[in-house]
């Protein structure tokens, strides 16, 4: 029988697929792939519920790029793409990811060129900048699936110690791996919860025969990145085959010890290797750019053709992207950690993300976004007033005494528009009016940065403050919980019923957070006649509503499950959980200590050094611009005043360029300060806590607000001081 080629198989499959679709009244697909994995509607719904929403936008772009270009990556690259796609469950192919890297870069270059002609009069610098940026974006765009996978791995790794803790805690009293995995998936947050649910899903859909096969297949994806997790889970699997209870429990205990010890060892090496990349990031992203700001005013004043948008392209587009890309590369190598849980996604805490306001005794909840937008709009309108007042023909005014050489007749002008020495209007051939160079305009421009910085900072701060206070209270409870559980376990071990044991432990721990939690449980039992399970987990009155912690919830769930097997089993389970929590807390404290030296210098850079240095640089820039502008005007007046220009070299007055108004220069630097505070906060939080969105938002709120306020205050004070010094020097020289 002749062998049938794969092409013929595809044709046959496509033919009958089209026939079936026609009979069912469904559209015939343009492409049919026989090797595609079957995807059910249930799984798509399951996936959409838990996957981040930004993935879908990238999926659409990648799939469109594949249809348009269909570029296929090389063998090794294709393998890396496929691995990343599988890890973060993307509905794309390696060809789609590879095609998007070129199409996305081409779109950026094309839009940049169009923007250069539309806004910047076809500036060759801007055209080259955007074309070069497009070419430079090919690699970052191509690495998007790898970055998503790294982000997914970091978020999942942050929960792995807890996942082992949950599985071990459950299996100590019930030796059933499937139920233990299900228990862990319920108490973890995505993405690891999604992965564990997928493990269970693959068994339910009969992709694998049993939970062990499904779990082993999942663990294969972590062998390259997280060997300690694989070892710990294999020890847990091995406990199922132990006949002796003592040996079974010993293997479970060993699994948690393995992941904790190896986590600490890997984090130790990470902290040691972190100093070099962080130093490079400091130099390239912070120190050198800020030092360059001191030279820029002189360079701009002596070089023709340099405009404010050239500097903005470098400082507000190029450098922030470089810092962010370097930061994500540093974060990609972060090993497993024991991070904080993001409880902000909890729908029950939605009201806590709003700001409270009271009108005539009525309390209202409002999204802080509206207030922050209002602050930004008001500050921007005031800050840009010199530009639109000049456009409306309002006459300039000044202050600080008379000055015949000044456009407004005073030492310091409010708007400070003047004739350009280099640029003429193409229609009238008259010198172009440029500005605003005035001190008033420069000071008002600080208000724009203040408005933007406060809007961003306050939005994140107001949205996260209440939620993080709840989490901090829960963390206090977690820190005390080991001792509290030990006491509760002892009471249960003495044969005291759980209903009474909670009241006794609450009395002995009165005044502590743990005492408040146990008292809330006891009150629900005594006053409302609830069972222990209801007193803790009731959706309307349960004690956990005041302390939303997955660790506490899972510990209490173990208590209620193990209580079904008797008080002695429950007592032993609580004592073991108490020991586990102490071990995890100890390792976490050691990890924080490892990171502290590196993190502290970066925190001081964000909160103080960068805004202070930048504020002083703006003051110096304003002074230099004022001095050079006045000198240029004085030289021109002297040259025009002499009959033949005798004694004055003809080109000396043309030696100085127009310069860049401090108004625009301040905006560039101020936005860069906000960008640095934002990006470095994300980096610090990632190094310190792994994937912790709630902590990230709160720290962005604190750092951006504080950094912007310091910068704006110093920039204003130094600009005023240095300009008065410059004015007195130039005035004395008349």
User: Which percent bin holds the helix content?
Assistant: over 70%
- β-strand percent reads under 5%
Low-confidence stretches at least 5 residues in length (pLDDT < 50)? 26-40, 643-648
User: Count of DSSP helices?
Assistant: 26
Main pleated-sheet profile: 2 strands, antiparallel
| Terminal Cα span | 107 Å
Which overall shape is indicated by the principal axes computed on the Cα atoms?
elongated
Could you tell me the number of beta strands?
6
Coarse structural class: mainly alpha
Strand order of the largest sheet: 1-2
Average of per-residue pLDDT values: 78
Radius of gyration: 33 Å
Protein architecture, described:
The chain is mostly helical. Among the domains are: about 1-35, no CATH class; about 35-150, no CATH class; about 160-275, no CATH class; about 470-585. About 70% of the residues lie in helices and about 5% in strands. It contains 26 helices and six strands. The protein has helices spanning about 5-25, 40-50, 55-70, 75-85, 95-120, 125-135, 140, 145-155, 160-175, 175-185, 190-205, 210-220, 225-240, 245-275, 275-300, 310-330, 370-385, 385-390, 440-495, 500-510, 515-530, 530-535, 550-565, 565-640, 660-690, 695-730; strands at about 355-360, 360-365, 400, 410-415, 420-425, 430-435. The strands form three sheets. Strands 1-2 form a two-stranded antiparallel ribbon. It has a two-stranded antiparallel sheet with strand order 3-4. It has a two-stranded antiparallel sheet with strand order 5-6. Strand 5 (about 420-425) and strand 6 (about 430-435) form a beta hairpin. The longest helix is centred in the last third of the chain and has 75 residues, at about 565-640. It is elongated and about 105 Å long. Mean pLDDT is about 80; it is low at about 25-40 and about 645-650.
